[in-house]
Design brief:
heterodimer, A: 119 residues, mainly beta, four-stranded antiparallel β-sheet, B: 106 residues, 0% helix
Protein backbone atom coordinates (compact mmCIF):
# COMPACT_ATOMS: atom_id res chain seq x y z
CA UNK A 1 0.00 0.00 0.00
CA UNK A 2 1.47 3.32 -1.09
CA UNK A 3 1.82 5.87 1.70
CA UNK A 4 2.85 9.51 1.54
CA UNK A 5 4.05 11.60 4.46
CA UNK A 6 4.67 15.34 4.47
CA UNK A 7 7.35 16.83 6.70
CA UNK A 8 8.63 20.32 7.37
CA UNK A 9 8.21 23.37 9.60
CA UNK A 10 4.72 24.22 10.76
CA UNK A 11 5.54 27.91 11.12
CA UNK A 12 7.22 30.16 8.56
CA UNK A 13 7.86 33.88 8.83
CA UNK A 14 6.49 36.30 6.22
CA UNK A 15 8.85 36.88 3.26
CA UNK A 16 10.74 33.65 4.02
CA UNK A 17 10.72 30.32 2.17
CA UNK A 18 8.33 27.47 2.87
CA UNK A 19 9.93 24.05 2.35
CA UNK A 20 8.13 20.74 2.61
CA UNK A 21 9.22 17.20 1.77
CA UNK A 22 7.02 14.25 0.90
CA UNK A 23 8.35 10.75 1.56
CA UNK A 24 6.80 7.94 -0.45
CA UNK A 25 6.75 4.44 0.99
CA UNK A 26 5.23 1.14 -0.10
CA UNK A 27 5.97 1.78 -3.76
CA UNK A 28 8.39 3.35 -6.17
CA UNK A 29 8.40 7.01 -6.99
CA UNK A 30 9.19 6.10 -10.60
CA UNK A 31 6.66 6.23 -13.44
CA UNK A 32 4.18 8.53 -11.69
CA UNK A 33 3.40 12.21 -11.44
CA UNK A 34 3.64 13.70 -7.95
CA UNK A 35 1.73 16.78 -6.89
CA UNK A 36 1.45 19.36 -4.18
CA UNK A 37 -2.02 20.63 -3.36
CA UNK A 38 -3.03 23.04 -0.63
CA UNK A 39 -6.27 23.80 1.15
CA UNK A 40 -7.47 26.92 2.91
CA UNK A 41 -10.90 27.74 4.37
CA UNK A 42 -11.15 30.73 2.06
CA UNK A 43 -9.88 29.46 -1.31
CA UNK A 44 -10.55 25.76 -0.88
CA UNK A 45 -8.38 23.24 -2.69
CA UNK A 46 -5.65 24.64 -4.92
CA UNK A 47 -3.32 22.61 -7.12
CA UNK A 48 0.22 23.95 -6.78
CA UNK A 49 2.17 21.84 -9.24
CA UNK A 50 3.48 18.43 -10.18
CA UNK A 51 6.76 16.70 -10.97
CA UNK A 52 7.39 13.54 -12.96
CA UNK A 53 10.02 11.10 -11.74
CA UNK A 54 12.18 12.23 -14.67
CA UNK A 55 12.15 15.78 -13.28
CA UNK A 56 9.60 17.36 -15.63
CA UNK A 57 7.54 19.95 -13.77
CA UNK A 58 4.37 21.95 -14.28
CA UNK A 59 3.13 24.69 -12.00
CA UNK A 60 -0.07 26.59 -11.35
CA UNK A 61 0.34 29.83 -13.31
CA UNK A 62 -0.79 31.86 -10.30
CA UNK A 63 2.10 30.50 -8.20
CA UNK A 64 4.68 29.73 -10.87
CA UNK A 65 6.98 32.65 -10.06
CA UNK A 66 7.38 31.49 -6.45
CA UNK A 67 7.28 27.68 -6.66
CA UNK A 68 9.91 25.01 -7.21
CA UNK A 69 9.19 21.28 -6.97
CA UNK A 70 12.13 18.86 -7.00
CA UNK A 71 12.54 15.10 -6.70
CA UNK A 72 15.10 12.72 -5.23
CA UNK A 73 14.37 9.26 -6.62
CA UNK A 74 17.16 7.67 -4.56
CA UNK A 75 15.32 8.68 -1.38
CA UNK A 76 11.77 8.24 -2.76
CA UNK A 77 11.10 11.86 -1.88
CA UNK A 78 9.92 15.02 -3.58
CA UNK A 79 9.89 18.53 -2.22
CA UNK A 80 8.12 21.87 -2.43
CA UNK A 81 9.71 25.29 -2.09
CA UNK A 82 7.56 28.40 -2.01
CA UNK A 83 9.41 31.68 -1.71
CA UNK A 84 8.35 35.08 -0.38
CA UNK A 85 5.43 33.71 1.61
CA UNK A 86 2.64 35.83 3.07
CA UNK A 87 -0.27 35.11 5.37
CA UNK A 88 -2.24 34.08 2.28
CA UNK A 89 0.03 31.03 1.98
CA UNK A 90 -1.18 29.70 5.34
CA UNK A 91 -2.79 26.37 4.46
CA UNK A 92 -2.80 22.64 4.86
CA UNK A 93 -0.35 21.34 2.28
CA UNK A 94 -0.90 17.88 0.80
CA UNK A 95 1.40 15.78 -1.33
CA UNK A 96 -0.31 13.35 -3.67
CA UNK A 97 0.32 10.78 -6.40
CA UNK A 98 -1.12 11.15 -9.86
CA UNK A 99 -3.26 8.20 -10.83
CA UNK A 100 -1.45 5.98 -13.35
CA UNK A 101 -1.21 7.76 -16.67
CA UNK A 102 -2.60 11.05 -15.38
CA UNK A 103 -1.07 14.30 -14.23
CA UNK A 104 -3.67 15.72 -11.90
CA UNK A 105 -5.99 12.99 -10.62
CA UNK A 106 -4.72 12.16 -7.16
CA UNK A 107 -5.29 8.60 -6.00
CA UNK A 108 -3.01 8.61 -2.95
CA UNK A 109 -2.61 11.55 -0.58
CA UNK A 110 -0.51 12.38 2.43
CA UNK A 111 -2.26 13.25 5.66
CA UNK A 112 -1.58 16.95 5.18
CA UNK A 113 0.76 19.40 6.87
CA UNK A 114 -0.51 22.65 8.35
CA UNK A 115 1.81 25.54 7.59
CA UNK A 116 1.16 28.87 9.24
CA UNK A 117 2.82 32.04 7.97
CA UNK A 118 3.25 34.41 10.86
CA UNK A 119 5.93 36.49 12.55
CA UNK B 1 -8.48 29.72 -15.52
CA UNK B 2 -11.36 27.26 -15.71
CA UNK B 3 -13.77 27.96 -12.87
CA UNK B 4 -15.68 25.07 -11.30
CA UNK B 5 -18.99 25.82 -9.58
CA UNK B 6 -20.71 23.25 -7.41
CA UNK B 7 -24.32 23.27 -6.26
CA UNK B 8 -25.68 23.16 -3.74
CA UNK B 9 -23.08 24.33 -1.21
CA UNK B 10 -24.81 22.36 1.53
CA UNK B 11 -27.24 19.51 1.24
CA UNK B 12 -29.29 18.03 4.08
CA UNK B 13 -30.31 14.42 3.56
CA UNK B 14 -31.26 11.26 5.39
CA UNK B 15 -29.83 7.76 5.27
CA UNK B 16 -31.29 5.99 2.26
CA UNK B 17 -31.86 9.16 0.24
CA UNK B 18 -30.74 9.53 -3.35
CA UNK B 19 -28.37 12.50 -3.49
CA UNK B 20 -27.22 14.46 -6.54
CA UNK B 21 -24.48 17.09 -6.61
CA UNK B 22 -23.84 19.25 -9.68
CA UNK B 23 -20.58 20.69 -10.93
CA UNK B 24 -20.41 23.22 -13.77
CA UNK B 25 -17.28 24.26 -15.64
CA UNK B 26 -16.80 27.77 -17.02
CA UNK B 27 -15.72 26.25 -20.34
CA UNK B 28 -15.87 22.83 -21.88
CA UNK B 29 -13.63 20.19 -20.28
CA UNK B 30 -14.77 17.08 -22.18
CA UNK B 31 -14.78 14.27 -19.60
CA UNK B 32 -11.79 15.49 -17.61
CA UNK B 33 -13.56 15.66 -14.29
CA UNK B 34 -12.99 13.87 -11.01
CA UNK B 35 -14.91 13.71 -7.74
CA UNK B 36 -13.45 13.45 -4.24
CA UNK B 37 -14.88 12.89 -0.79
CA UNK B 38 -13.32 14.60 2.22
CA UNK B 39 -14.01 14.09 5.90
CA UNK B 40 -12.91 16.55 8.61
CA UNK B 41 -9.17 16.43 9.29
CA UNK B 42 -8.54 13.97 6.46
CA UNK B 43 -7.20 14.18 2.94
CA UNK B 44 -9.62 13.98 0.02
CA UNK B 45 -10.39 10.51 -1.32
CA UNK B 46 -10.79 9.87 -5.05
CA UNK B 47 -14.22 8.51 -5.97
CA UNK B 48 -14.72 9.07 -9.69
CA UNK B 49 -12.36 9.99 -12.54
CA UNK B 50 -12.96 10.80 -16.22
CA UNK B 51 -16.48 11.90 -15.27
CA UNK B 52 -17.94 8.41 -14.81
CA UNK B 53 -15.21 5.86 -14.01
CA UNK B 54 -15.44 4.45 -10.50
CA UNK B 55 -12.14 4.29 -8.63
CA UNK B 56 -11.21 0.83 -7.39
CA UNK B 57 -12.66 0.05 -3.97
CA UNK B 58 -15.32 2.76 -4.09
CA UNK B 59 -18.86 1.48 -3.44
CA UNK B 60 -21.09 1.19 -6.48
CA UNK B 61 -23.71 3.49 -4.92
CA UNK B 62 -21.46 6.32 -6.16
CA UNK B 63 -21.77 7.24 -9.82
CA UNK B 64 -20.79 10.13 -12.02
CA UNK B 65 -22.09 11.45 -15.31
CA UNK B 66 -21.78 14.35 -17.69
CA UNK B 67 -19.47 15.85 -20.27
CA UNK B 68 -18.62 19.26 -21.61
CA UNK B 69 -19.58 21.73 -18.91
CA UNK B 70 -22.13 19.99 -16.69
CA UNK B 71 -21.48 17.02 -14.44
CA UNK B 72 -23.23 15.21 -11.62
CA UNK B 73 -22.23 12.98 -8.74
CA UNK B 74 -25.01 10.71 -7.53
CA UNK B 75 -25.16 8.64 -4.36
CA UNK B 76 -27.97 6.16 -4.94
CA UNK B 77 -28.71 5.38 -1.30
CA UNK B 78 -26.95 7.56 1.25
CA UNK B 79 -25.12 5.66 3.97
CA UNK B 80 -23.92 6.96 7.37
CA UNK B 81 -20.31 6.91 6.14
CA UNK B 82 -21.22 9.23 3.25
CA UNK B 83 -21.78 12.38 5.31
CA UNK B 84 -18.82 14.43 4.17
CA UNK B 85 -17.79 17.21 1.79
CA UNK B 86 -17.53 16.46 -1.92
CA UNK B 87 -15.33 18.26 -4.44
CA UNK B 88 -15.14 18.19 -8.20
CA UNK B 89 -11.83 18.74 -10.01
CA UNK B 90 -11.19 19.54 -13.66
CA UNK B 91 -7.99 18.39 -15.34
CA UNK B 92 -8.55 19.65 -18.88
CA UNK B 93 -6.36 22.73 -18.42
CA UNK B 94 -4.08 22.62 -15.42
CA UNK B 95 -6.32 21.71 -12.50
CA UNK B 96 -8.94 23.52 -10.49
CA UNK B 97 -11.40 22.38 -7.86
CA UNK B 98 -14.96 23.28 -7.05
CA UNK B 99 -15.70 24.98 -3.75
CA UNK B 100 -17.23 21.86 -2.24
CA UNK B 101 -20.65 20.51 -1.28
CA UNK B 102 -21.22 19.50 2.32
CA UNK B 103 -23.65 16.61 2.77
CA UNK B 104 -25.07 16.80 6.26
CA UNK B 105 -27.58 14.83 8.26
CA UNK B 106 -31.14 16.06 7.94
Amino acid sequence: QVQLQESGPGLVKPSETLTLTCTVSGGSISSYYWSWIRQTPGKGLEWIGYIYYSGITNYNPSLKSRVTISIDTSKNQFSLKLISVTAADTAVYYCARGRSGTFYIADYWGQGSLVTVSS
Amino acid sequence: DIQMTQSPSTLSASVGDRVTITCRASQTISIWLAWYQQKPGKAPKLLIYEASSLESGVPSRFSGSGSGTEFTLTISSLQPDDFATYYCQQSNSYSTFGQGTKVEIK
